[in-house]
Structures are given as C-alpha cells and as structure tokens.
Specification:
This protein has about 475 residues and is of the alpha/beta class. It is built from 14 helices and 21 strands. It is about 30% helix and about 20% strand. The longest helix has 17 residues.
Length: about 475
Amino acid sequence: MIPVTEYSGRDVAVFGLGRTGLSAAKALAAGGARVHAWDDDAATRERAAAEGVALSDINKRDWQTFAALVLSPGVPYRYPQPHRVVRMAEAVGVPVVGDMELFARAVQALPERGRPKVIGITGTNGKSTTTALIGHILRHAGIDARVGGNIGKGVLDMAPLHANAVYVLELSSYQLDLAKSLHCNVAVFLNLSPDHLDRHGGMTGYLDAKKRIFNSQEAGDTAIVGVDDVYGQSMAIGLKRKPARVWQVSSDFALGKGVSVVDSHLFDSLTGKAVPVGDLREAKALPGTHNHQNAAAAYAACRALGVAPETILKGLETFPGLPHRLEIVGQQGGVTFINDSKATNAQAAEQALKALGRVYWIAGGQAKAEGIAPLEPYFPKVARAYLIGEAEEAFARTLKGKAPTRRCSTLDQAVQQAFEDARSSGEKDPVVLLSPACASFDQFTSFEARGDRFRDIVKGLGAASPLGAMESA
C-alpha cells in the first residue's frame, strides 16, 4: 500500500467502493486522514465494511468539513451529467480528485531525489498489453518495475514508493479526468478512436482527457506518441511546443525519426538514422500490426530509461502475453480457440480480424454506438458469425448479405455451434475467435468474466453433445 499523507488529520469523503475506492480509503486512513467512505449499493458497502473500511453516509454530512472528495473512476464526473456527490462537493468548493491524483501527491511529498520514475500509458486500445509489456521488459533488464493502475493492482495498492522503482501505470480516460498533477517521466499515448463518448461529452472531451497525461511533463521527460491515426499525428505536432522531448512510434509508417515497425521488423531511428533492432515475428505473443505498435511504444519507453536495444528485444521475445487479448485458450478436434474478450469495441475487434486469417467469429454483447459497421472490410474473412447478447439483432442486420450468421443468444451456444461448423468445414487449422466488439455487461460482470467463461466452455467441448439447429440469417 502507498499511504497518502496529504490529508492527515482532515476529513475526506470517498465515494464509490469498488477496487479503486477501497484502496483509496485504506491509503488515506494509513496516511492519517479521517475517511468517510460511502457507496449507494448496500452489497458493496457490506464488502467494504468486511475489509475494515469505516462507512459514513456522506449524504448526511456537513460537506464544508471535507478537505476533498475522492471519486471512483466509474462514477460520472462531468458527463452525461455530474453525479449528485460531485455537485454537492462543488457547491461548497470541495475539490474532486481520483486515485491517480492521490498517487501524484504522495510522490510529490517525497524529496525530489527520493521520487520513483513514473511511466504512464493511455490510448483507446492496447493500453494493457503495452503496460504489461513495458513492465516485463524492465524486469528482464533487472529494474524494479511495478505494474498497476487500470490493470492488475490499483495504484494505491502497489508497493510503497521507492526511489529506485519504476511505476508503470495504465491510465484510463476516467482516471486522467481526475488527475490534476500527475507527473509522468515517460508518457505514452497509443491511439484514439470513439469510446466512452457519453462520459466525455464527445470526441473532443475524450481527447482532452487523454492529453492530460502530458500536462505535467518537464524538460528531460519523454512524450511517446503513436502516429497511426490523425489524433496522434495532430497531438505529436502540438506537443513539440512543450518542454518534454517527443518520440513518435508507428506500425504503419517508416519514420525518419522515431520507432517504426516495417514488415514485422523493428527499427530505431530516434537519432535520425534507422537501425534495425529485430524481427517481431519472434515475439509470438505480439501478433498483428496493433501489437507491433504496442511493441514500438514499449521499446521507446524503455529506451527513454536507458535500457539497451538488445535487452528490450529479448524482453519482447519472451513476453507471455495477457489473458483475453488474442489468447489461445485451447485446441479441440483440430480447431483452435482464441479469446479476445478484451475487444469491447469495433476498433479492438478490427485488430484481431486483421491479425488472423479466415475465422469463425463470435461477436455481440452490449454494443457501442458505432456497432460493427466499421468492420465491413473484414467481413469476407468471416466464415460465419455467431451472434450473442443485446447486439444480436443489430449485428445480424449489419452482416446480412455480407457474411453468414447464426443467432445464438448465449456464449455457450455460440461456442458449441462454431466448434461444430469449424470442425466439419474441412478447412486446415480452422479458428474460432471470440472478439465481441461489445461490452460484456448484458450477460457478464466484466470482459474478464466473459473470457473466463469462453475458456471453460472450450475445455468442456470434448464431453459436450451437439446442440440442435439454431436460427440462421
């Protein structure tokens, strides 16, 4: 745990007692604050109390006594409209902060020479893989790298601050919205595509939230920007007016200065001269151009800390990958099953469809605004689509006349039917891909729960009996 002493001896409200809120409440209490923790959900309050968090109904408190409101990232801050506790705080001038701001203040409370290095990673897609990859490379290099934030451990649940450590943090747009003074020695922006727009009032607000990762950078810091989309290209140009050095990365373009991947080969041209580093086909857990961009960004981040190219390459080659991200979960009857449950929007699913050949594609769930229409160029690669969840009907309309479909309702039915079709297809090495292009919340508590269920179903296929016919479209 990282104790937060910023509010020692003062009253602090904490609202939202999921993983982030619990860790914030404990860190504040460990730092001497009087914590008033609350959640609207009774079951969540019970779990918090069982973990030793003191509950206090902040709706009935005098808000003028609070030094701050710590808001969990899942609670609306500005859009679609501020949550009532945000309005209550702002009505009496109580600052609203998040766990990343508490972390930032804990770092700033240390003498400058005693502060750890911080690497922050954001973007719409690829954050988790890039974060884990950087942590893996740094550890391979013998560096005390601690990985967390929006992945794995909450930032305040991580090991106490230490000057020789590097904190590698995945940062969501929600967390960045509430981080006013977070200083990243290395800040990585991967890409941007429409997502969470309701929480940011549109693309402009979403982009503004992501750009906050660079706000506190100084001379000697490094800003790493993926330039494979127009948002990154524009951002890289704008950042040149800032004090930090700007390194561009790409898996689409050969950059005159930056880090590029061309035909699966990684090139370092940070000095203006392109030097070949290695063949990313040897990095078995990083297939596809999207993962090549992740690899380029991770390479640049580690180079910024002085890690040698050959050490980084070995780290790339030994990276084991992450669950739910193009994860091969098994083979049954000659059919390979790939779990890409983390693909919760069309842009993420696109990366899987680009990276693979012909697939038996399981898609659906709680759809984002764009649906799967942006994926039309990849429909010819779909042997058949198996549709589930709330998006089933809408996706069937989009795919009509463009790819064969089966409406399966549930993941269990979709996996069984896809298995039967792939196994009887006569194709060599057929692939069943779960890449939903949807959130999971219509049928599962998280994309992890969805991916875990997929893995369990695949394991049980050997003993499963064929299902009856399902509706086709």
